[in-house]
Design brief:
- This protein is mainly beta.
- The chain folds into 3 domains: 116 residues, Cupredoxins -  blue copper proteins (Immunoglobulin-like, Sandwich), CATH 2.60.40; 155 residues, Cupredoxins -  blue copper proteins (Immunoglobulin-like, Sandwich), CATH 2.60.40; 127 residues, Cupredoxins -  blue copper proteins (Immunoglobulin-like), CATH 2.60.40.
- It has 3 helices and 31 strands.
- The strands form 7 sheets. It has a 7-stranded mixed sheet with strand order 11-10-9-13-19-16-17, with no helix packed on it.
- Strand 16 and strand 17 form a beta hairpin.
- The protein binds CU-O-CU linkage and copper (II) ion (2 copies).
Length: 429
Amino acid sequence: MEARRGRPVTVTHRNELPVPTVVHLHGGRTPAESDGYPTDLVLPAAWPKTASHSTDGMPGTGHMADPRAVATALTRDYIFPNDQRPTLLWYHDHRMDFTAPAIWRGLAGLYIVRDDAEEALGLPAGPREVPLMIADGAFAADGTLAYPSLDPTLRHRSGVTEPYLAGVLGDVILVNGAPWPVHEVDTARHRLRLLNGSNARHYELEAVCEDGRRLELVQIGADQGLLAAPVTHRTLPMAPAERYDVVVDFTDVPVGTLVRVRNRLGTGRTRDVLAFRIARRATTDDSRVPSALATDLPTWSRQEAVRVRDFAFRAGRMDDDRHGWLVGGRAFDPARVDVTVGLGDVEVWRLIADVHHPIHLHLVGFRVLSRGGRPPLPHDAGLKDTVSLRPGESAEIITRFDGYRGRYLFHCHNAEHEDMAMMANFEVV
Ligand code: C2O
Ligand code: CU
Ligand code: CU
């Protein structure tokens, strides 16, 4: 989907699946009623009525009720004001306890917000702007997507089998739904709008020519839009749900050759992601990468912060004693407000992890202030909505909670961790 900044869009979703869904626009500055809260389910036609207030849409699974849930039958309108910096967003299912299998099976897509100011910069556009949603998958012998659910009907019991408690990895790399695609380009600058839409897989991308030369990845934007100035990378780490806006220059690559985009963290075939075939010489390339990009990046200072909070993201036991992933020692409970923030307040959050956890906040973009007690890394530049914590690492982020009042989520975006309770609420008042 493509939208213009400041021009609201209403999307009507109709659920023809056998299970409930709910749609979240990731990175959207969205009123709470359209933010896709995990219990605001869109119920399928044949679904027990009594189930509408149990958190996973099924009675008798041990979940407490969520009195604020607003379930609808069959359809729901989501209203997106698009009153935000232009960037690449994505929408995906957010059903309580069942988000991971739903994303894996394809309930996810790209959503671009544009505006005049960004278009005036002269960045590569048209066929030279390439949105790329990278996600791994796995297939059964009959060609259906394979996912290790405890309950493959996704109706009753959530969770995955024991070997996958840390997250589900596939053995096929899909880009925009196709395995290891090859895309034809001409010898010009191209703008790659990258999303890691994988449940749990991390990437460290590089673009390598057939002669072994590595092309520079010139980052111009982060999760929440353009950087102040480009940042050049040789390799680019991407955690689940992160987006990077990158310009690659194919001008000097010989026609007929391949540029492979590879994942340095992969093994065997999962090292390959996609490739660009240089199909022809460009007749013209009038695109530019200006040395000054955005002038509207928020720069909140620690002095402005009215509060500092600490959150630990660690393994633990869920309420039913199953293995889970917890925020501040607690399993997600939709009926509990974990954090109350004042509309307009600036806060610093200190996040710490046991293993890899990509931490995402709904509603707001944030800046990374520090990582492991040191200055942020080059790829932490710009305005983020997901920050990748590495094993044992801490990070400080700063944001202003503005936009809308209401109930929002923050959580780990390893989708299996998310389904295993690594999620919490903040309420903007
Ligand atoms: Cu991709 Cu709760 O988000
Ligand atoms: Cu989100
Ligand atoms: Cu996690």
